[in-house]
TrEMBL record:
Entry keyword annotation includes Cell membrane: no
Residues spanning the signal sequence: none
NCBIfam families found in the cross-reference section: rplA_bact
Originating organism: Campylobacter geochelonis
Record lineage: Bacteria, Pseudomonadati, Campylobacterota, Epsilonproteobacteria, Campylobacterales
Gene Ontology MF terms: rRNA binding; structural constituent of ribosome; tRNA binding
Function: Binds directly to 23S rRNA. The L1 stalk is quite mobile in the ribosome, and is involved in E site tRNA release.
Subunit structure: Part of the 50S ribosomal subunit.
Official protein name in the record: Large ribosomal subunit protein uL1
GO terms for biological process, alphabetical: regulation of translation; translation
Gene: rplA
HAMAP family in alphabetical order: Ribosomal_uL1_B
Keyword vocabulary terms for this entry: Repressor, Ribonucleoprotein, Ribosomal protein, RNA-binding, rRNA-binding, Translation regulation, tRNA-binding
């Protein structure tokens, strides 16, 4: 038994594994589980009753968390001329076109979010094989392929979270840091779950959210009350 498992076992005592917590109580509980030497991320995991192998049951989108994510996000924009100027003014960290794509080809990726104007998506396509696996490919569904680059940069900087259901029907996202106030975390949690509910595919049958859990980067999970999640409209 290593030191970590002892620490983890201590945390387990604070969580009732037979209970589905109401959201407010879950946030309170998760805040008591902070034990790492860094400001841990509060993470949500949802299991959805969808089969993403069918295109009409794919759940994908983005939402701006009202209290931000607590992370500093480095934003790159592939744009030219006036749109490049607009991106710089909005506070993008890196702006370019061919030069930026060349850097990506060399494996120099110094950004967390990539935004592109639609007319330059052909250029972005050249590095799709590099960007795709890293989850950095711009996509109209997450607002990262757009002519409104200023808005996209602002969203990315102010706490936009992209979500996409995996093959098993799970969605994971960070909702902020454990140092956030309870109110900030509740705002972010409610906003995120509402966005997931809004994206419910018409083809999804039965209970849309099967279950959910809240945890920290290095903590046990706290099960959430599914009905409360479903009722967040």
């Amino acid at each position: 038994m290593g030191k970590n498992s002892k620490r983890f076992n201590e945390l387990l005592k604070k969580v009732d594994s037979n209970k589905n917590y109401l959201l407010e109580e879950a946030v309170d509980t998760v805040k008591t589980l902070a034990s790492a030497k860094f400001d841990e991320t509060v993470e949500i995991a949802l299991k959805l009753n969808v089969d993403p192998r069918h295109a009409d049951q794919m759940v994908r989108g983005s939402v701006v968390l009202p209290s931000g994510t607590g992370k500093t996000v480095r934003v790159a924009v592939i744009a030219k001329d006036a749109k490049a100027d607009e991106a710089k003014k909005a506070g993008a960290d890196i702006v370019g076109d061919d030069d930026l794509v060349e850097n990506i080809q060399k494996g120099i990726i110094e950004f967390d979010v990539l935004i592109a104007t639609p007319n330059l998506m052909g250029l972005v396509g050249k590095v799709g094989r590099i960007l795709g696996p890293k989850g950095l490919m711009p996509n109209p569904k997450t607002g990262t392929v757009t002519m409104d680059v200023a808005q996209a940069v602002n969203n990315a900087k102010s706490g936009q979270v992209n979500f996409r259901v995996d093959k098993q029907g799970n969605i994971h996202a960070g909702l902020g840091k454990v140092s956030f106030t309870k109110e900030q975390l509740m705002d972010n949690l409610n906003t995120f779950v509402r966005a997931i509910n809004k994206h419910k595919p018409a083809a999804a049958k039965g209970r849309y959210i099967k279950n959910g859990a809240l945890s920290l980067t290095m903590s046990p999970a706290v099960s959430l009350d599914t009905q409360e999640l479903i009722d967040l409209k």
